[in-house]
Protein: DUF6594 domain-containing protein
Organism: Immersiella caudata
Amino acid sequence: MTETEMSTPPLARGYPSVASLMGKDGDLAIFRRFSRLNMISLLKLQAELLYLEKEYDEILAGDIQEGADFHANFQNLIASSEGSNSDQLDILIRIKDKVKDYNELLIQVQQIDTFNVPSSHSVSLLREWLRDSRGGRCFLQSTESFTWHADNEPDFVTFGERNRPQDNLTAWLTMALLGLYHRAWGHKGKDGVIFDPESGAIRYYSNKWWDRIGKALTTIMASTLPALVVLALYFENDVLKRIYIMIGVTAVLAMVLSLTTNAKRIEIFAAVATFAAVEIVFIGSVPSHSNSSQVA
């Protein structure tokens, strides 16, 4: 990505500068979804509908008892607006308006849940810019200063591009490599995007290449692990000790896969079972190197 200077007039510091920042890179357009407030609003509307439903049932039962056929003839129900017995029609109109509000909010909340989740790198960059004396200059005050607080991080959404799910190990390795690159070269070179000329040390790097590097390294690590274990088993002469090593390594592998990847339980089981099968075949078919040398 070529270097691009993103500046805002000095007098526009504050929310205008944040808006400019977010407008130029969707990954930094990070907002709260206010899940708790959305849920309480839905619960309130739901409770109101419960009371309207109860009131409607009572009016309906009363009309039936009085011989009105509104429940079976909507034409008469509509015509009741011109008479004195319009309670059932009135309550249905109120229910229609309230159901509309409820359904609209329900759909909106569902759509919000489909928004992209910002990467930890983007969140950290935004916070760094807000704190920097040459960037956001800590302009947020009072309650607004908690907008992007760490406690609210599970509530964040972004307009940035959807990233493919990345396991914890790859994400950590990618961020570690990116941090080393920035400290060693990136801050001196022309890589990345400078969001504010006054705070040029704050740079944003495209995640695409770094994600690929991280995935390549984790793939290499995963591919060479079985060979390294087989090599360790080769140098162990005692068959029983080989089995103990196999059990320990298999257990560690299962734990690592569970903690650092997004794999499902059945996928982890399949990977571990395949790995264990390779170890078992090696233990059962390959003699220790000392014995094989003696035979030769």
Remarks:
- The two ends are 60 Å apart (CA to CA).
- Strands lie at 30-32, 156-158, 193-194, 203-204.
